[in-house]
Structure formats: C-alpha cells, structure tokens
C-alpha cells in the first residue's frame, strides 16, 4: 500500500501553516467518530445531504471561475473541474439512495442547507464573484 507523504510538498506546507486549524479539524468529534466507525447514522445521513448541496455550490463556483479566466486552456481546465463535480453528483445521489435518502433519478427529499453549511457555500461563491482568482490547472 502506498502511503502519501502528507508532510511534504505544497500540501505539507499549507498544512503546517494552518497547523492549529488542522488540529481542530482532525480532533472534531464528527471526524473522530467517522474515523472510528462510531458516528451515529442520523449524523452521517445529515452529512450526506449537506455534502450534496455543497457539491452543487462548488460546481457553480467553477462556472464563475471559468467566466473570470483569461485563456482558453485555463477555461477548459476549470470547466473540466466543474464537469467532474457534476458527473460525481449522480454517484452521490446513488450513494444517498443506498442510505434511504433519495431515489436514483433525483433527491426529492433533500432539505435546504443547514445553517452550518450555508457559510461555506456562500464563501465559495462570494470569493469567486468578488476576488481575483489564483488558478493553477
């Protein structure tokens, strides 16, 4: 089995710069319980529905990114990222269906985003709209 070197490269440098935030993230009860297999099923189901809504907003953010890029190769790369997310959504719906959350055609019983999910989705879209983009395909 190949074990990635999480302490090296760009990822390692970024993780070092955000060490305190990283520790709070990995020590969060949700992450700990998910890792240990003790997370309550209802919490996992809520996570799946919120993740689905997050993915939709993440795809939208790539559409906004395409509109801001200057070259066709950059635009194609961002569009490919958006398409990858959009193509992942049916897999996500299928997984939700396995947990009794949705049918395979459309997730009709997904509720609006929880208050804890809205800030992340809003930040991603607002950043794409209002700020310059650092993009490296």
Ordered list of secondary-structure elements with their pairings:
Layout: H1 9-17, H2 19-27, H3 29-36, H4 41-68, H5 72-98, H6 118-130
Features of the shown structure:
mainly alpha; 69% helix; Thiaminase-2/PQQC; 137 residues; EC 3.5.99.2; globular; Thiaminase II; hydrolase; thiaminase activity
Radius of gyration: 17 Å
Distance between the termini: 28 Å
pLDDT averaged over residues: 82
**Major β-sheet, in short?**
none
Assign the CATH topology of the largest domain: Heme Oxygenase, Chain A
Based on Cα principal axes, name the global outline: globular
Number of beta-strand segments = 0
Query: Can you say what the CATH homologous superfamily of the largest domain is?
Result: Heme oxygenase-like
Class from secondary-structure proportions: mainly alpha
| Number of structurally distinct domains | 2
Top CATH class of the largest domain: Mainly Alpha
Low-pLDDT regions: none
SS element count, helices:
6
Helix content: 55-70%
What string, H for helix and E for strand, traces the elements in order?
HHHHHH
How big a fraction of the residues is strand? under 5%
CATH-defined architecture of the largest domain = Up-down Bundle
């Amino acid at each position: 089995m190949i074990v990635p070197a999480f302490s090296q490269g760009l990822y390692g440098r970024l993780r070092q710069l955000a060490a305190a935030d990283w520790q709070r993230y990995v020590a969060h009860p949700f992450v700990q319980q998910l890792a240990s297999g003790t997370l309550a099923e209802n919490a996992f189901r809520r996570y799946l529905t919120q993740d689905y809504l997050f993915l939709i907003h993440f795809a939208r953010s790539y559409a906004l990114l395409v509109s801001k890029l200057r070259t066709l190769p950059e635009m194609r790369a961002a569009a490919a990222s958006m398409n990858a997310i959009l193509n992942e959504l049916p897999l996500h719906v299928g997984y939700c269906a396995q947990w009794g959350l949705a049918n395979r055609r459309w997730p009709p019983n997904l509720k609006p985003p929880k208050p804890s999910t809205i800030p992340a989705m809003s930040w991603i879209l607002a950043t794409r709209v209002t700020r310059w983009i650092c993009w490296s395909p």
